[in-house]
Amino acid sequence: MRKLILNIVFILTTLCSLAQEKKDYKVYQFEQNDSLNGHFSKIVRYNEDGLKSYEELIDYKVSKLSSFSDYIDNHFYSDTLLIKTQTTYNNSERKAETTFEYNSDSQLIKETVSSYERRLKKDLKKGIEYGDCIIEEEDYEKNPSWEIETEKFFKYNLKGQLIETYAPEKSQSRQNRYLYRYNYDGLIEKVTSLENNEIIWEEFRENFKNGNYDYIRLWSNDFTFKNVCRSVGAKRFKYDSRNNLIEKSRPDETGIRGIVKTRFYYDDNDVLIKQERYNSKDELEITHIYIYE
């Protein structure tokens, strides 16, 4: 009897392991329903530990108007922690490298992004004050070089919740600092965006089940609720009876045109096989088909 129980446990463990195994896949992309004129837009591979090791994008579109530059990412790990990502860009000498540092609790505490490219000469004098705003080939250094573009730091509270991200010196955005406050259920109820110590906006959330929430975002000149310079919206997530995410929706990028949706489809083994993006008029924009190897 004991042997039978052990065999059953072994079989169940094996099946569970196989179910969780990550498979390499490609994503076939096409606009609307034009499947005959699509192409493979993403290639993803995993290492023997089931961790993503390679990702390539080829004219990958999130929506009709939003897309990514073509690139190849290679990921490197220490045990299961991602410690470095190396990026190369198609038809370009430009490269990038992102490194990740962790504390003793395996929490990310620092992210550094460096780029390798030709840069403008340090003594370049161009701009309105010089009467010349046109950048030409000779304005660049002859050879590309590595330079740190962003250094971002992460802080946590005693509960292990992320409470701050901060890029004190180098940032690709004016908004280089974010603060997070949580409710008693451990859900984010307030996000503050700052430029160093100056508040840009504050977002207040009302949380519901399954990650759904409504929010109102007030900009720095609108804390009295008397102005129109604010945004109100909601993020929604729908799941099926097997707890698969089947739809997520949010305001469009402008925040005023309406709601955009992404719908997800699965096979009988709960493996994602298709993803569709709909615009604010509920028109199908982009379809992604997942093909596993």
Describe the structure.
With 293 residues, this protein is mainly beta. The chain is built from one helix and 18 strands. The protein has one helix at 2-20, and strands at 25-31, 39-46, 52-57, 71-78, 81-89, 95-102, 108-117, 145-156, 162-166, 177-182, 188-195, 198-207, 213-219, 230-239, 245-251, 259-266, 272-278, 284-292. It has an 18-stranded antiparallel β-barrel. The longest helix is centred in the first third of the chain and has 19 residues, at 2-20. It is globular and about 60 Å long.
Tags for this entry?
mainly beta; single chain; 293 residues; globular
Residues in helix, %: under 10%
Q: Based on DSSP secondary structure assignment, what is the total number of beta strands? A: 18
Q: How would you sum up the major sheet?
A: 18 strands, antiparallel, barrel
Order of helix and strand elements from N to C terminus? HEEEEEEEEEEEEEEEEEE
Regions with little confidence, pLDDT below 50 for 5+ residues: 1-19
Between the first and last Cα atoms, what is the distance in angstroms?
39 Å
Roughly what fraction of the amino acids lie in strands?
over 45%
Radius of gyration: 23 Å
Question: Structural class, please?
Answer: mainly beta
What overall form do the CA principal axes indicate?
Answer: globular
> How confident overall, as mean pLDDT?
87
How many alpha or pi helices? 1
